[in-house]
Design a protein that fits this description.
The complex is a heterotrimer. Chain A is α/β, with parallel strands linked by helices. Chain A is built from 13 helices and twelve strands. Chain B has a two-stranded antiparallel ribbon. In chain B, strand 1 and strand 2 (204-205) form a beta hairpin. Chain B is globular. The structure holds adenosine-5'-triphosphate and magnesium ion. Chain B: It is found in: Cell membrane.
């Protein structure tokens, strides 16, 4: 390993002396995925690959298969191969820090993709997660309800994202809660973000409040499905606004049908495209801090300040459904299944 | 057949026995079931009183728990696990275990979900076609049964322990369900299929209404009386000692009162106003000032669970199949030597378990009105816990269907009650886990004392 | 001479390296009781378990009524009218006496359901003959005494019109009265023309009840003899030393002196 680091240091030193030579060769940009078993990363990959290759660079990738140690070895291997930039979707953001250090020492530029790694030198590209919560709450206030009994269906208690989201939601709703306009009447975590669990929790919430529920803030689309089923059993679906996120196809259909107010959509292709464009620029030697649009972020658990670009998510409500269809994210028939003709512009 | 609490011991011991023991012997009631019902009543009353202290409502003791609506919901929520627990009893009695039921449930759910939403419409059956729910249901049973049969064959003929085969199944089928729909959620289900879950589809409820509920209640009462009379006739025919008439009457009256009482409570849960208004609008009825009270009646999933419970009890106690399962669980070698084909039996038991998981898949997907690969996560644990809380011995040979159903009800009561009281979910898990261990310990103590 | 009811020829079986039964041949005629004797571990139980379908032999042939048969499992044996009382009793511990008596051959009602009441009634009759003091019909057999369990096992073997009965130490746990009862029963069955293999360590029992004895040692047959043509001491010599007396037919296990 020592040997590898030395040779790399040497090659990096060489590269910095002769930037023009490496420009002609094309750069190598690598991605260390935490897993490739989930469908969504394939979307990201396609977007990244397209941008990287369009710039004449080479794309390579590794799959950590949900193992922190495999990911560390992957990054070490990529460093040894002499790649220029590594994007990392970290499996364990603490355990991976030494690998970031190693890469930085070897002159390889790092980007933490979607998952925050608190390394002050690594660029963090992600969706604004607290923003997702804020956006849900804002949409609720603007297009749903501003007062009444609110139910909060939170995600898994072990997932920090569930808490982040809730922070964002509360930031926006707090004034109305303080003024007494909004009453928090139920608030539950949902094991494993399970829809059927969310349904049960919602049923209990409705029973406990004798159906006096005016709005439901659900932290994702799957759980929103459970919530809507529970509401439907009481004949309340459609009259009680429900939030969600992920742009699930079934959820977008509910948005079209009017039983769900909003699905906050994080278009993985925008994320991939943005990160890949930055990677191209960094590979050419542009300093991270001077990149267009990059600011700093220190909202992680340790409070380390990192250069960051936070992509604003998109709140898909009924009037914005055309955006997901036009982007090719979901087929129109799927969104519009069962929709009464003429009721939703995007479906006509 | 397998209960140990009854029996004609000598007259000498009879004099020493307490009134309770004499009562139990005369009525031939399993005292463990009394214990479980006692625990259930304690949980229900406790939750009702406690929730009433926080927020008074119109429950029996002033709380939210013992309202018609909550009992109705509780039964619906229990049904999916209860259905699978009846099969798990037989699996455990055979000295096996099935860890894969939750994953089978997910797989069957996503397949029949895709079938209704994508595949059948592509094959020319438009969405909403009346055949769709039938095809989906049949496929669910066949698919669940075949998966179970494959597991059973691997266990019986390849000699791989059930723990390993079904642990593999737990991982495999969860993965397979992801693969079928690539992590998406399939929704919504067919309008008729959805009724299996007990929810409302438009203005058609997934429950049978007041009149039919009373009908079923009276039918069950008639069944209870007929069963007692038939048993008495059989005993007389072979000149066996008869139960005292007061004991028979007591059983008949208690059984009927329970059934009719439950029906009365269930029928007091009325359609929510939103649905009533929609229904009234469609049928040109004017809703009176004080509202319309339309009863839900028993929900379909509850009736399915009830039916499964009756059929499974029949299978377990009245057929060769059941007799062989218990005999094999008691002593596999003896069963084999008696000429029982224990291998084939194993395949059948697992196939049955898979079929029940298929039924539960329909209930779960219909109830949620969606199918996703996360459906039924951890259900294997709840199913096993229900069977075990219900008195099924992991050593094999012992366990009853009604015990497992009661076990499922106890667990769901705890969970619903704690959600109603806004318990944090971490504490909920701790309570449910603790109760599982406590229940098994109680059962062990009870059995030891019996010896 | 009539054809033997059962003939086992040149049977061998090994468990791992141990030859539990080694080229053993044995036969049985209708209405005959053959005593099977030998020290502990001689291979008696293993040999008869091959006949009852519990084990599959490695080598050899089995004939019933002079016709070669294949016995792969206990069901095959039962179909040929071979019933067995196992040394280990082999009862399903968690069900009651009636369920054990009819295990695998349950009585059914007209509706195709188990007829528990009829089975219990039959069971009461059979047990009444074998063990008149038996009362615990509702209990799982786990709760019964060793002798009571043995009565249940015997009842099960004789109740289904066996033609060939194998009894592996049937009286080991029985009291004197019950033992005498079983002795009477054997005589009665014999009179009905049933062939019986009787395994026992009690020489008196065997010489009282059996027509012939066959002795095994270390998996091999030492020899067979008519009971009235050899003395008890000679039989003991066969069992202990493998010495075949002049009146007996020697087998492969006989020690050459
Ligand atoms: N299932 C088995 N697996 C391995 N070895 C076995 C098995 N059954 C029997 N044996 C061995 O085969 C030999 C013969 O056993 P068997 O039970 O036939 O003896 P036995 O003559 O019936 O003795 P006993 O008088 O003690 O009942 C013994 O050495 C025993 O250890
Ligand atoms: Mg033996």
């Amino acid at each position: 390993m020592k040997f590898a680091v030395k040779t790399l240091l040497a090659s990096v030193a060489l590269a910095s002396v002769m930037p023009a030579a490496s420009f002609a060769e094309g750069k190598t940009i690598a991605v260390s995925w935490k897993t490739f078993q989930e469908e969504r990363w394939k979307t990201d990959e396609a977007a990244i690959k397209e941008v990287v290759e369009a710039a004449g660079n080479t794309y390579i990738s590794t799959d950590a298969q949900l193992s922190a140690s495999k990911q560390a070895a992957d990054i070490e291997g990529l460093v040894n191969q002499g790649v220029d930039v590594i994007m990392v979707v970290a499996y364990d953001s603490d355990a991976i820090l030494p690998s970031f250090q190693l890469a930085a020492d070897s002159g390889v530029k790092m980007i933490s993709y979607d998952v925050l790694v608190e390394d002050p030198n690594a660029l963090y590209v992600t969706f604004d997660n607290v923003g997702v919560g804020r956006l849900m709450a804002q949409t609720m206030l603007e297009k749903g309800k501003t007062e009444g009994n609110f139910a909060f269906i939170k995600g898994d208690k072990g997932d920090p994202n569930a808490t982040f989201l809730f922070q964002g939601i509360m930031e926006v709703l707090q004034p109305n809660i303080d003024s007494g306009a909004i009453k928090n009447v139920c608030e539950t975590f949902t094991d494993g973000w399970k829809p059927d669990q969310a349904q049960r929790n919602m049923e209990q919430c409705l029973a406990a409040n004798n159906n006096a529920i005016d709005a439901v803030v659900s932290e994702n689309d799957g759980m929103a499905g459970g919530v809507v089923s529970a509401l439907e059993a009481q004949g309340m679906a459609g009259s009680v606004p429900v939030t969600g996120q992920d742009g699930d196809h079934a959820a977008l259909n509910r948005v079209a049908l009017g039983t769900q107010l909003v699905s906050v959509w994080k278009d993985a292709r925008v994320l991939g495209k943005t990160a890949a464009e930055y990677a191209n620029q960094i590979a050419e030697g542009t300093d991270v801090t001077t990149l267009d649009g990059v600011s700093t972020f220190n909202g992680g658990p340790k409070g380390v300040e990192v250069p960051a670009f936070l992509i604003a998510p998109n709140a898909i409500t009924q009037d914005k459904l055309a955006e997901v269809i036009d982007a090719g994210w979901v087929a129109k028939e799927k969104v519009c299944a069962g929709v009464t003709a003429g009721s939703v512009p995007a479906c006509d | 057949m397998t209960d140990t609490a009854t029996g004609g011991t000598g007259a000498a011991s009879r004099n020493r026995d307490s009134a309770l023991t004499r009562f139990l012997r005369a009525t031939e009631i399993d005292s463990r079931i009394l214990g479980m019902i006692g625990a259930l009543v304690a949980i229900w009353v406790g939750f009702d009183i406690y929730s009433g202290m926080l927020r008074p409502s119109d429950g029996l003791f002033g709380g939210t728990f013992l309202t018609a609506r909550n009992i109705w919901t509780l039964l619906v929520q229990t049904s999916s696990i209860a259905v699978m627990a009846t099969g798990m009893v037989l699996v455990i009695v055979m000295r096996h275990i099935d860890l894969s039921v939750g994953s089978i449930l997910a797989f069957v759910a996503v397949v029949i979900g895709s079938l209704q939403v994508f595949w059948l419409p592509q094959l020319g059956l438009p969405i909403g076609h009346p055949l769709i729910w039938v095809i989906a249901l049949v496929c669910a049973l066949a698919l669940g049964g075949s998966i179970g049969a494959i597991h059973g064959a691997l266990i019986a003929y390849a000699g791989i322990p059930a723990f390993i085969v079904t642990l593999g199944g737990l991982i495999f089928w969860r993965g397979a369900s992801w693969a079928v729909i690539r992590g998406e959620t399939v929704a919504p289900m067919d309008k008729t299929f959805k009724l299996i879950g007990g929810g409302i589809s438009g203005t058609t409820p997934g429950s049978i209404g007041a009149t039919a509920s009373w009908g079923i209640a009276f039918l069950i009462c008639a069944g209870i009386v007929a069963g007692l009379l038939y048993g008495r006739k059989q005993r007389r025919k072979f000149e066996f000692p008869l139960r005292p008439v007061w004991a028979e009457t007591f059983l008949a009256v208690t059984g009927c009162v329970l059934v009719l009482g439950a029906t009365y409570v269930i029928n007091r849960y009325y359609w929510p106003t939103g649905v009533v208004n929609r229904w009234a609008e469609q049928n040109n009825v004017t809703v009176p000032e004080e509202g319309l009270d339309i009863s839900f009646g028993y929900a379909l999933p509850v009736l399915i669970a009830l039916g499964v419970g009756i059929v499974m009890t029949f299978l377990a106690t009245k057929t060769r199949f059941g007799r062989y399962i218990y005999a094999t669980g008691g002593n596999p070698e003896a069963a084999e030597l008696a000429g029982i084909n224990t291998k084939r039996l194993t395949v059948w038991v697992f196939a049955l378990m898979g079929t029940l998981a298929g039924i539960s898949a329909c209930i779960s997907a219909a109830r949620l009105d969606a199918a996703s690969n996360a459906l039924g996560l951890f259900d294997e644990l709840y199913t096993i816990a229900a069977a075990v809380i219900g008195g099924t011995s992991l050593a094999g040979g012992l366990g009853t269907i009604y015990g497992a159903i009661l076990g499922a009800l106890v667990m769901q009561s705890l969970q619903s009650g704690m959600t109603l009281l806004n318990f944090e979910s971490a504490y909920k898990d701790m309570v449910v886990g603790g109760v599982l261990v406590f229940a098994v310990w109680l059962d062990q103590m009870y059995r030891r004392r019996l010896k | 001479m009539t054809t033997p009811l059962v003939e086992m020829r040149d049977i061998s079986i090994a468990f791992g390296g141990i030859k539990a039964v080694d080229h053993a041949s044995i036969d049985l005629y209708p209405g005959e009781v053959v005593g099977l004797l030998g020290h502990n571990g001689a291979g008696k139980s293993t040999l008869i378990k091959i006949l009852s379908g519990a084990y599959r032999r490695d080598q050899g042939e089995i004939y019933v009524d002079g016709k070669q048969v294949e016995i792969y499992n206990p069901r095959d044996a039962k179909a040929l009218g071979i019933e067995t009382i196992y040394q280990t009793l082999a009862l399903a511990d968690n069900v009651d006496a009636a369920a054990n008596l009819y295990l695998g051959r349950e009585l059914m009602t007209a509706y195709g359901t188990l007829d528990d009441v009829a089975m219990e009634a039959e069971c009461r009759k059979v047990m009444g003959r074998l063990n008149p003091n038996f009362r615990r019909f509702k209990e799982p057999v786990k709760a019964l005494s060793g002798g009571q369990r043995q009565s249940v096992a015997i009842a099960r073997a004789i109740h289904f019109n066996a033609r060939i009965l194998i009894m592996d130490e049937p009286t080991a746990a029985l009291g004197p009265a019950e033992t005498a009862q079983v002795g009477e029963l054997i005589k009665q069955l014999k009179a009905e023309g049933i062939g019986i293999f009787l395994i026992s360590h009690d020489l008196h029992d065997v010489t009282d009840l059996a027509d012939r004895v066959t002795v095994m040692k270390n998996g091999e047959i030492v020899g067979s003899a008519k009971v009235n043509e050899v003395t008890q001491d000679e039989i003991l010599g066969m069992i202990i030393a493998g010495k075949c007396p002049p009146n007996a037919t020697p087998g492969p296990g006989a020690v050459n002196l």
